[in-house]
Amino acid sequence: MFNKSINTKSLFRCVVLAILIGAAPVAAAPLDVTIYENGGDGQMAECSLEQVAGLKANGDGFLAVRTGPGSDFRKIDELYNGDYVLVYDGSHFPWVGVLYGHGREVLNGNTGCGFVGEGKRPLPYPGKKGWIHSNWLQSVAG
C-alpha cells in the first residue's frame, strides 16, 4: 500500500538525484579499431580539418560514425551536413578515423595535429572519436 505521508524533503532529494543521474555524461563508446595519430617533424600537420557535405535530404540524411572502418562495425553516432571532423587516421581509406563534433564543437582548441617524433600513437585527445566514410567530407584545412 502507498504511504501518503512521504516526507517532502525526501521527495526533493529523490527528484534531485534522478535529475543528476539523468544528466550524467555518457561515456564515449569504445572503439573496435583504434584510431592513431602520426608523428612527424613538427613542420607539417598530421591531420586535416574536414566538413561533412553532400548528404542528400532524401537519403538517410546522416553520415554514420562507427566503431571501426567498415559498415559491419556498430554505429555509435550520426553526423550531418555542416558538422566538422579532424581526420587523423587514413590507414583504412576510404574509411577514416576522426575526432568529431556536431556543428563546430570539435573546434575547441583542446586537440593537436600530430606530435614531434617518429611512429604513431593512439589518439590521445578528449572528445568523440569514430570511423566514417570519406565520401562525404570536404576539405577545410590541413
Shape: globular
> What string gives the helices and strands in order?
HEEEEEEEEEE
Q: How many structural units, i.e. domains?
A: 1
Helix coverage percent of residues?
10-25%
Separation of the first and last Cα atoms: 66 Å
Number of helices: 1
- Quick one: biggest sheet? 5 strands, antiparallel
Q: Extract low-pLDDT stretches.
A: 1-26
CATH class: Mainly Beta
Average pLDDT score: 80
CATH architecture: Roll
Largest sheet, order of strands side by side? 9-6-5-2-10
Radius of gyration: 20 Å
Query: So, the CATH homologous superfamily?
Result: SH3 Domains
* Share in β-strands: 35-45%
Strands, count: 10
The CATH topology turns out to be SH3 type barrels
Structure description:
This protein has 142 residues and is mostly beta strands. It has one domain (29-141): SH3 type barrels. The protein has one helix at residues 8-22, and strands spanning 36-40, 48-52, 63-66, 75-79, 84-92, 95-101, 115-116, 120-122, 128-133, 137-141. It has a five-stranded antiparallel beta sheet with strand order 9-6-5-2-10, with no helix packed on it.
Summarize this, please?
The protein contains 1 helix and 10 strands. The protein has 142 residues and is mostly beta strands. The chain has one domain: SH3 type barrels (Roll), CATH 2.30.30.
Give the helix/strand layout.
Elements: H1 8-22, E1 36-40, E2 48-52, E3 63-66, E4 75-79, E5 84-92, E6 95-101, E7 115-116, E8 120-122, E9 128-133, E10 137-141
Parallel strand pairs: 1-7
Antiparallel strand pairs: 1-8, 2-5, 2-10, 3-4, 5-6, 6-9
